Amino acid sequence: MNSRTPSFDELDRQIITALMANARTSFAEIGAAIGLSATAVKRRVDRLRETGVITGFTATVKPSALGWRTEAYVEVYCEGAAPPRRLAEVVRNHPEIAAAMTVTGGADALLHVRARDVEHFEEVLERIRAEPFIRKTISVMVLSHLLPESPEAGATHAAPE
């Protein structure tokens, strides 16, 4: 990835918007919508990928179809100052953690957890709590998605066996 800040114009924004709406949209379709040839769209997409603006293309899948039927957000509170690098090592060891970030406020981190069922979620939570530097967790179970088309409503991998 290029270290300089990537620059892009209104046509790039329109291409990105089209790909975010449907990554399978052809370059010809995008070009027709914004007034460029398919070749010009491809060149721009290639440049956007090379500069790290576009980081990949994915399929959004209904989580329950992959076995993820339970979902929660978990606030993590650490003893002392746990460096983000150490938190990242921990969360990588749990395939059920769909997303993790450090946050402001009382908690040190927020985890988005998907599990097969409540029992599986409880087992995941116990594994997280077993880390020696984690003081406490607070969990909030997801009941429904108010924006079902959002990335958070989708899944990127199947539930572990």
Summed up:
This protein is an alpha+beta fold. The protein has helices spanning 10-21, 27-34, 38-50, 84-92, 118-129, and strands spanning 70-78, 97-102, 109-115, 134-141.
Description:
With 161 residues, this protein is an alpha+beta fold. The chain folds into two domains: 10-50, Arc Repressor Mutant, subunit A; 63-143, 2-Layer Sandwich (Alpha-Beta Plaits). 34% of the residues lie in helices and 19% in strands. It contains five helices and four strands. It has helices at 10-21, 27-34, 38-50, 84-92, 118-129; strands at residues 70-78, 97-102, 109-115, 134-141. The protein has a four-stranded antiparallel sheet. Strand 2 and strand 3 form a beta hairpin. The longest helix has 13 residues, at 38-50. It is elongated, with a radius of gyration of 20 Å. The mean pLDDT is 90.
Q: What is the correct CATH architecture of the largest domain?
A: 2-Layer Sandwich
The CATH H-level superfamily of the largest domain is: Lrp/AsnC effector binding domain/regulation of amino acid metabolism (RAM) domain
The CATH topology label of the largest domain is Alpha-Beta Plaits
- Helical stretch count? 5
Number of domain units = 2
Sheet-strand content, in percent, reads: 15-25%
Level-1 CATH class name of the largest domain: Alpha Beta
Q: Return the string of H and E elements.
A: HHHEHEEHE
Main sheet: strand order:
2-3-1-4
Helical fraction equals: 25-40%
Overall pLDDT, averaged? 90
Secondary-structure class: alpha+beta
Low-confidence stretches: none
How many beta-strand runs? Answer: 4
Write down the Rg: 20 Å
The rounded distance between the terminal residues' Cα atoms is 35 Å
Instruction: Tell me the major beta sheet.
Output: 4 strands, antiparallel
State the shape: elongated
